[in-house]
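Subject: two folds for Thursday's group meeting

Dear M.,

Sorry for the delay on this. The cluster queue was jammed most of the week, so I only got both jobs back this morning. I'm pasting them in the order they finished. Each block is the input sequence followed by the predicted structure tokens. Could you check whether the formatting survives your parser before we put anything on slides? The first protein is the one we discussed after the seminar.
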Amino acid sequence: MKIKAAVLNEQGKDLDLEEVILDEPKSNEVLIKTIASGICHSDIEFQDGGFPIKLPVILGHEGAGIVEKVGSNVTDFKKGDHVAVGFASDGTCRFCRAGLPGSCVNFNKLNTSGGPMRDGTYRLHKQNGQDIGNFFGQSSFGDHIVADVNNLVKVPTDLDLRLVGPLGCGYMTGAGTVINSLKPEINSNLAVLGTGSVGLAAIMGAAVSNCKHVIAIDKNDQRLEMAKEFGATDTINNTKVDMINEINRIVGSEGLNYVVDTTGEPDVMKAGLTALTIKGQFAVVAMGTKTIKELSPMIDLLSFSKDIKGVIEGDSIPQEFIPELIDLYRAGKFPIDKLVKFYKPEDINQGIKDSISGKTIKPIIVFDEQYHV
């Protein structure tokens, strides 16, 4: 079938809205009409060339939509189901079987290579027959998606699907890092570096975990003010004050137990690591080229027995954690609707620019303008 999709033909350039060919779903796959897709920092990193990826590719990995067709072996989903579309995993490796699909041994191959689907074949093609790579097993920057059942989470039909997509990555990563991975004790002290959508989700996760001090750290005063609405007890603009001294002033002799970094900025990460107390834990959820080249924290880790851990997708099982986040949203404890701005598909490049500038926290591309709850 012919669909409209935003194609990345050259890294460092805008996405091109094109008519492309999408194949029928195979036996373990589902065809989904895309209602909306979030724009995530990872999409931007791959578009800009921060990480290599095979081209052409259709990015997008925070999709949400309505099932239109299911493959012959699919039994858990049917036409008309509303779904969030998350990351891809093989479902069979030892980490997947242990409930850590984000640590799947084939994660990079299935999600970030720009290659084929799990069976080694492509679903997306140019009009001239050239294969188009998939992203996170979904490529949600198109008006339809073909995804494996492992990617899917069924959601209630009365939930606004325009808000659902980021639950599959950004929000799940932020909140899951706190709730599933760090698991902070009640009355512990936690700082979040960066207050974009992932950082604010982490702050919300810390708030529902009953941390004593939840410290939001950023260079943007407007976002820091917003962080207070989402559960931050304290805020620090690290461009105006000494971040370490200010953290120590806030937490006192109790020390800072946990840090979640969403920035990938080496200087900020080093300061956060230094501010941790003995046996403190530092969770890294963002990675950029500067991080890889510049960050060497080994001395601090060894000297004070601190723990640094990489967390992918919030150490979440999407089929279990996304319904928990929906329950928190319905209870008013996870107000994701306050983070978004909606864009038309033809304005996707503007949405990306607004995300980079900080004008919009979570841009959402709405592919079906006739959709209503």
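Second protein, same layout:
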Amino acid sequence: MTACHSELLQLKNLGMASVNILRAIGINTHADLKRMGAVEAYRRIKARDINVSKVMLYALQGALLDVHWNDLAPDLKAQLVLEAELPDTGGYNQATA
């Protein structure tokens, strides 16, 4: 196990499977996850056709806040889902690619 794996595994909600998914989208450290944010990380995971549920989105946010994903406030969960489902306004739009 690398130091990066170990660092991510120390975060709440993240197990080896989640860490491997994060590494697949370029997140190797807590700082990487913090920089990208839970919503963008979730979008990138979904864009790679990796089958994850909304619990992954909650888990990522919980990891950033150092709380169990189930303890996130319902309104925060709803806001995360809303943001994750908004059309991507970045430079790359899959719908037009």
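Two things I noticed about the second structure. The radius of gyration is 13 Å. Residues 3-89 form a domain with the DNA polymerase; domain 1 fold (CATH 1.10.150.20).

Cheers,
T.
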